[in-house]
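> example.struct
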């Protein structure tokens, strides 16, 4: 075989190039020992490095598994977040897709870690255990055989001559040990040669598997993102649009921040289905010793219940189970502002709102809910459609248990021209009224008026609320016919505006549009035309006529109650006679006749032969006789001879018209001026800086003052000399006006430029009643400041009593004698004797 080249066969180890020469191995030469030591060191070196590789691989895989566990926790959290958007289909769907994609990528990562674990930890670990460990074990076995061979040689060399038998045995042992050693040496050389060959591909092959695993991992990720790229682009576009929209909305909210902070009401109408109104109110406790006020969240339900609860309570407490048996009314005599009471047969609840608008909204909503509950009850709905109006009214009267006096007041209000039909839709038998407009309304239109806000319309119930004398006078001065002549002066342009007129059967949208166009936009109000009805004479000047009022018929010495709720029985017959005598001044009862008369004139006024246009000259006498004993201060104060000076037409505008009409207490012209846009707080710089309210005081009319206050006039407005309306009323001795201002919490302590307060003026003029009122107002204010949680109604009782005396005419409203006794002003009330000095 010498010189012949052998064919390479990888399965045959003899074809391998041995790392140690077998001849040297058999001879056990020093070269063999040197090569063996070198190869074993190489094996040890690789063993240490592979051990480190396995260790780091295990750490990496464990870290990867920990990472996957954290990823799964992360994905679970994402799923929980996506559940939050389950009511937002767009966001919830995109969230679910993103979560599913991340979970799929995590599966790819898990597969990568499994392949690395199999290639490194399992395959290379097996190589390390089988190949390297086998070489080390064979090396140890070779050293054992060498020790046995060396021992046999030593024993054979030590046998003396002549001992042939022992020598033969020793030689046999040497031959056996030599054969065993040579076999072990050949085996170690074979294993080392195989190991050196296998390590070249075994380790690299597994590393290649790791590379392929990473390739597969990234290839799967790439395929996934290629498939999802259109969806991801769409999602990115949607997110950009959401971000832009959110930025626009945020800027819009920021622009409206001031409006949201200062103009958002503290109540919510229709917070959720079944809820008419909800919001915070203060509720006075029922403890007798200490009546504390607690703020609670109230809800008015459409099933006729009123509930409340604390801010952090889930279940509400029912305050009133059935509102049909309740009555709600403002508390003018309470020491705290914006208070009203809800009266049931068993208990009276006292509630307080945070402001005037919230107060009016809650009172109106409760009144409407009570009325709706009554009319929707079985007692009132039985044969409702087939019953005549009189039957329905009697049923409502029975349910509400109205007193005969209040029923007559309601009847008298409805007898004012046009008041027997709703001012806006013409529905018969209205049961509500807008006190600042002086009109009557049906329940549907009253709801629309409440939604306009109290700066446009203040709604009261004719049957459920208590009506003070001043409000009754305002209602008698105005009326539906008069107001509609103002607000429907251009009724012929209704069709051109495309606005549908409200009717009793119209929808809420039509009704709401009609009322807003009529009272808010004032689209049908016509400026006064200073024409002369075709006459050639030019109008150069104008004035306001003092209104004609039906004179009251004295009712004898009998005195009605403090708060007027009807007509005294003793004067009812005289009232009927007077009503019949004045029937020629009233318009027809049919709605069609009313509408014809309302549209007959474009403005209130007419020109006389001297070329002076007189506002209010064509007004019918105001029907102030609905309270037969009521009389204005002006009728007894000696100022009835005041004459208005004609003004130039160049000075005519809505503000000066309101200013002049307030002086003569012509509420019809005042209403027209406000409809034309007059400012209730306009300051006349040409007349000592007075406002219309100052002029109403100087004119002596309580009704004109009441009308201006109802429409938002500032009660503490000052003129050029810092005189407030209550200051002027005190100076003129108008007791009724002083009572009105004190009931509305006027600033009685405000001084003029000379430092004089209304009390100083009253003492100087010796107005005994006014001195008493102002001193009691001062005492009441001190009590309210000192005991904020307590209520003392004495002051309001006395104010009502003195005001009633002024209205009744039992004595002059402008008492000037210091001899008038001030003790026992009202029945059952003891007042300290206050001497005027």
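> example.seq
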């Amino acid at each position: 075989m010498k010189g012949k080249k052998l064919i390479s066969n990888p399965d045959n180890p003899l074809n391998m190039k041995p790392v140690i020469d077998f001849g040297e191995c058999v001879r056990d030469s020093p070269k063999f020992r040197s090569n063996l030591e070198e190869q074993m060191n190489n094996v040890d070196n690789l063993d240490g490095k592979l051990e480190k590789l396995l260790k780091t691989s295990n750490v990496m895989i464990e870290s990867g598994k920990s990472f996957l566990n954290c990823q799964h926790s992360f994905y679970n959290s994402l799923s929980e977040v996506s559940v939050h958007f389950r009511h937002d289909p767009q966001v919830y769907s995109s969230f679910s897709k993103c979560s599913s994609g991340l979970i799929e990528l995590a599966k790819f990562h898990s597969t990568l870690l499994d392949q690395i674990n199999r290639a490194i930890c399992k395959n290379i670990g097996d190589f390390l255990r089988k190949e390297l460990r086998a070489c080390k074990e064979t090396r140890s076995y070779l050293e054992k055989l060498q020790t046995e061979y060396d021992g046999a040689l030593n024993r054979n060399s030590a046998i003396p001559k002549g001992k042939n038998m022992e020598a033969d045995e020793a030689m046999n042992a040497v031959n056996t040990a030599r054969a065993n050693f040579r076999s072990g040496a050949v085996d170690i050389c074979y294993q080392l040669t195989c190991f050196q060959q296998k390590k070249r591909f075994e380790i690299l092959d597994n590393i290649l598997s790791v590379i392929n695993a990473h390739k597969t991992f990234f290839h799967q990720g790439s395929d996934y993102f290629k498939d999802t790229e259109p969806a991801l682009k769409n999602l990115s576009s949607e997110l950009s649009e959401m971000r832009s929209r959110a930025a626009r909305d945020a800027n819009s909210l920021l622009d409206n921040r001031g409006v949201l902070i200062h103009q958002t009401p503290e109540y919510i109408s229709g917070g959720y289905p079944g809820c008419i109104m909800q919001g915070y109110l203060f509720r006075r406790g029922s403890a007798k010793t200490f009546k504390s006020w607690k703020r609670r969240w109230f809800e008015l339900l459409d099933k006729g219940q009123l509930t409340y609860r604390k801010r952090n309570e889930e279940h509400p407490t029912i305050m009133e189970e059935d509102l049909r048996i309740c009555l709600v009314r403002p508390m003018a005599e309470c020491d705290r502002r914006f208070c009203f009471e809800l009266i049931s047969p068993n208990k009276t609840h006292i509630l307080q709102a945070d402001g005037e608008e919230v107060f009016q909204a809650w009172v109106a909503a409760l009144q409407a809910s009570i009325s709706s509950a009554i009319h929707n009850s079985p007692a009132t709905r039985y044969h409702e459609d087939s019953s005549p109006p009189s039957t329905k009214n009697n049923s409502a009267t029975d349910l509400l248990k109205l007193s005969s006096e209040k029923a007559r007041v309601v009847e008298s209000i409805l007898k004012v021209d046009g008041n027997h039909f709703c001012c806006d839709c013409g529905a018969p038998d209205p049961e509500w009224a807008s006190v600042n407009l002086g009109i009557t309304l049906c329940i549907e239109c009253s709801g629309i008026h409440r939604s306009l806000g109290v700066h446009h319309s203040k709604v009261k119930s004719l049957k459920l609320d208590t009506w003070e004398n001043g409000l009754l006078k305002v209602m008698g001065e105005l009326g539906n016919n008069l107001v509609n002549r103002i607000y429907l002066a251009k009724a012929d342009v209704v069709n051109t505006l495309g606005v549908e007129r409200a009717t009793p059967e119209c929808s809420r949208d039509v009704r709401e549009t009609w009322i807003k166009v009529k009272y808010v936009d004032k689209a049908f109000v016509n400026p006064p035309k200073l024409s002369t009805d075709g006459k050639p004479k030019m109008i150069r000047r104008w004035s306001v006529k003092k209104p004609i009022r039906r004179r009251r018929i004295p009712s004898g010495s009998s005195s009605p109650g403090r708060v007027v709720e009807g007509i005294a029985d003793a004067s009812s017959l005289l009232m009927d006679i007077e009503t019949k005598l004045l029937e020629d001044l009233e318009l027809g009862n049919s709605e069609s006749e009313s509408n014809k008369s309302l549209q007959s004139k474009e403005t209130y006024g007419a020109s006389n032969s001297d070329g002076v246009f007189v506002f209010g000259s064509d007004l019918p006498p105001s029907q102030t006789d609905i309270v037969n004993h009521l009389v204005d201060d002006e009728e007894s104060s000696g100022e009835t001879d005041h004459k208005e000076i004609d003004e130039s037409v160049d000075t005519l505008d809505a503000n000066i018209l309101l200013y002049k009409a307030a002086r003569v207490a012509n509420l019809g012209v005042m209403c027209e001026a406000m409809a034309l846009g007059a400012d209730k707080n306009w300051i006349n710089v040409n007349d000592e800086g007075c406002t219309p309210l100052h002029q109403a005081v100087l004119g002596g009319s309580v009704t004109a003052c009441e009308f201006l206050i109802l429409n938002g006039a500032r009660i503490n407005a000052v003129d050029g000399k810092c005189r407030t309306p209550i200051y002027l009323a005190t100076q003129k001795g108008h007791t009724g006006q002083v009572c009105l201002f004190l009931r509305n919490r006027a600033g009685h302590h405000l001084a003029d430029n000379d430092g004089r307060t209304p009390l100083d003026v009253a003492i100087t003029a010796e107005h005994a009643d006014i001195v008493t009122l102002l001193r009691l107002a001062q005492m009441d204010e001190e009590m309210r400041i000192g005991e904020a949680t307590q209520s003392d109604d004495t002051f309001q009782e006395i104010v009502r009593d003195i005001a009633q005396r002024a209205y009744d005419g039992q004595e002059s409203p402008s008492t000037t004698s210091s001899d008038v006794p001030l003790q026992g002003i009202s029945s059952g009330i003891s007042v300290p004797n206050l001497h005027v000095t």
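> remarks
The mean pLDDT is 75.
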